[in-house]
Structure to design on (625 residues):
């Protein structure tokens, strides 16, 4: 029996093959989706809306629990994603680094999040498709996030690609790719979760 | 004569708030510092082929850096000599000529005016050569780093680099292969004066405070050895780290003494995605060479700042672009190395996502709050007096390089003297 990896502290799963799989998923997420029954689509929507609410309410630990143990939270700096093996991203977080991100904010000494960003996000244009099995859904949506911090209201827009996987406890996010329309431009403080 | 008393504003151990807040001083800086001295423009690997170009700024002046049809690197003002429109509006590309979108004037990528539409409408004495694109007076590169200045009397680039040159060599010579600058970068805008960034670049005092949350992330792993930079929290002045003033405005903070053995850099790095998976592969494939390669995924631990806008930090090339007296753009160009194993370059990408996400934003927040604090006219001074007049803290070597404990404000005290020299320098040729 193989030991289950504690991905909070190690990262054996981000292999060369993992990168290949992510790039293949991006291709699928960018393609035209085939028809999916409305009930199946609603399953996906429930996850997206729940994620949005948890983030806006800063329930970050509960938010983390929506992600699979071998997840990727990816915010490319290159429009379209580029090749993360040769290019930096605004975030290319495996489970461990995603937990680092939350941990840092929770220390109370992350001055870029003192005070914390207040956010409210709109999710629209949701489309969903069957993944490689019934246990997998591909979802894409548009977003607009309004963020307020230190006297300034800003907005962020783009589209998000998700891969959802059905696990014993229900649907989990195994890939979230956040495509900002201004991914390659300068931002002021991207330390809140997109 | 100017309206400013520079000796009052820039003193040995403190500077006046107005050098960060006064927009007239900022305008003067953009003319004289970002102009009269060498300013970093681009890395040659960003324009590797003939006819490649990228657009950037010399201070506030839009500039096109081209590798012209003969392979020469030039910096052209991005301004049509006809009515003033920028002729190139893309970030980068490849072209032999630029056509102004406004009236169609056409320029070769060496700056020559190649043609104007319906030339018969101009008087017969019309001489195209008088309306070539204006270029920077001097453009030179040193081992891939391209600099430019509008000052015809500027010393050679190598003279300007001075004592920073051999440190830059050490950063480059860490590798057998060529450094490749990736044009996708971490780009940030901050609500603060550009000098906050330069002040901070050789500041060993702020690390354990401004980066407290990042250091806490390092401690999440309960390892025996210090994680990257956690050593700044443990009486850093008695550590072998140090800061230096190198001359000509350049400053240096050296963290390398905290890494004695091959493999230390890898060991002490905060973990990046894929760390364990890739380490396993690299150890199997490269055996006794593995630690050497793995070390190259971590930063060089040299913070070398070449005045006024080029900051070498970790494995990144950080560029300061002033926008206004209270606004600055900061770009962190990531680097790969052309002959390193692909796995190492991939890990380098993941390492180079760490500090821009978890470290720099906290500094940036503090810079903006400095700007807000300095708006108070009644509190005039920014203090750089740590280590000042304290016996036996500083030493000066035969090159004039000043070395001090890592938390001393020696770098800021001294680069501001060069800043003052440049701002007060009278030159007839440049207006």
């Amino acid at each position: 029996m193989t030991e289950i990896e504690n991905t909070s502290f190690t990262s054996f799963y981000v292999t060369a093959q993992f990168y290949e799989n992510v790039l293949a998923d991006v291709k699928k997420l960018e393609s035209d989706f085939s028809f999916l029954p409305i009930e199946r689509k609603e399953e996906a929507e429930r996850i997206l809306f729940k994620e949005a609410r948890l983030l806006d309410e800063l329930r970050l630990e509960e938010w983390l629990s929506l992600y699979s143990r071998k997840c990727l939270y990816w915010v490319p700096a290159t429009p379209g994603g580029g090749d993360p093996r040769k290019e930096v991203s605004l975030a290319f977080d495996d489970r461990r680094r995603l937990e680092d991100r939350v941990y840092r904010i929770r220390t109370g000494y992350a001055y870029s999040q003192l005070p914390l960003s207040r956010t409210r996000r709109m999710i629209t244009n949701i489309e969903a498709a069957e993944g490689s099995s019934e246990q997998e859904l591909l979802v894409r949506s548009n977003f607009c996030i309004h963020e307020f911090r230190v006297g300034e209201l800003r907005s962020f827009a783009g589209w998000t690609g998700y891969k959802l996987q059905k696990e014993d406890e229900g649907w989990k996010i195994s890939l979230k790719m956040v495509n900002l329309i201004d991914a390659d431009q300068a931002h002021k403080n991207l330390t809140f979760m997109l | 004569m100017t309206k400013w008393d520079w000796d009052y504003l820039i003193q040995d151990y403190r500077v006046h708030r107005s050098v960060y807040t006064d927009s007239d001083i900022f305008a003067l800086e953009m003319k004289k510092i970002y102009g009269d001295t060498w300013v970093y423009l681009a890395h040659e690997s960003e324009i590797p082929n003939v006819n490649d170009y990228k657009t950037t700024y010399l201070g506030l002046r839009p500039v096109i850096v081209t590798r012209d049809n003969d392979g020469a690197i030039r910096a052209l003002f991005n301004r049509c000599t006809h009515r003033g429109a920028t002729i190139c509006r893309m970030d980068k590309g490849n072209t032999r000529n630029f056509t102004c979108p406004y009236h169609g004037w056409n320029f070769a990528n060496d700056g020559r005016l190649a043609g104007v539409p319906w030339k018969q409408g101009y008087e017969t004495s019309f001489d195209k050569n008088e309306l070539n694109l204006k270029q920077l007076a001097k453009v030179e590169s040193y081992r891939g780093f391209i600099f430019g200045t509008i000052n015809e009397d500027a010393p050679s680039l190598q003279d300007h680099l001075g004592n920073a040159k051999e440190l830059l060599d050490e950063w480059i010579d860490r590798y057998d292969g060529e450094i490749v600058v990736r044009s996708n970068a971490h780009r940030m805008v901050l609500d603060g004066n550009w000098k906050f960034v330069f002040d901070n670049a050789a500041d060993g005092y702020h690390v354990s405070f401004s980066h407290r949350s990042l250091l806490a992330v390092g401690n999440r792993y309960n390892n025996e050895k210090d994680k990257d930079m956690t050593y700044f929290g443990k009486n850093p002045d008695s550590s072998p780290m140090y800061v230096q003033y190198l001359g000509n405005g350049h400053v240096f903070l050296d963290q390398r003494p905290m890494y004695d053995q091959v493999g230390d850099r890898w060991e002490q790095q905060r973990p990046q995605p894929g760390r364990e998976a890739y380490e396993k592969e690299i150890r199997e494939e490269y055996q006794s060479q593995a630690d050497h390669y793995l070390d190259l995924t971590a930063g060089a631990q040299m913070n070398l700042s070449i005045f006024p806008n080029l900051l070498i930090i970790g494995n990144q090339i950080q560029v300061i672009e002033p926008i206004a007296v209270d606004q600055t753009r900061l770009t962190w160009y990531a680097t790969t190395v052309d002959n390193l194993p692909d796995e190492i370059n991939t890990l380098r990408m993941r390492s180079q996502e760490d500090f821009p996400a978890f470290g720099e934003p906290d500094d940036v927040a503090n810079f903006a709050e400095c700007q807000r604090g300095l708006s108070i006219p009644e509190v005039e001074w920014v203090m750089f007096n740590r280590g000042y007049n304290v016996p036996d803290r500083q030493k000066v070597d035969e090159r004039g390089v000043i070395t001090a404990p890592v938390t001393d404000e020696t770098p800021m005290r001294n680069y501001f003297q060069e800043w003052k020299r440049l701002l007060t320098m009278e030159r007839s040729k440049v207006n």
Observations:
- Chain A touches chain B through 47 residues (CB under 8 Å).
- The beta strands of chain A are 67-76, 89-93, 118-130, 136-149, 152-167, 170-180.
- The two ends of chain A are 37 Å apart (CA to CA).
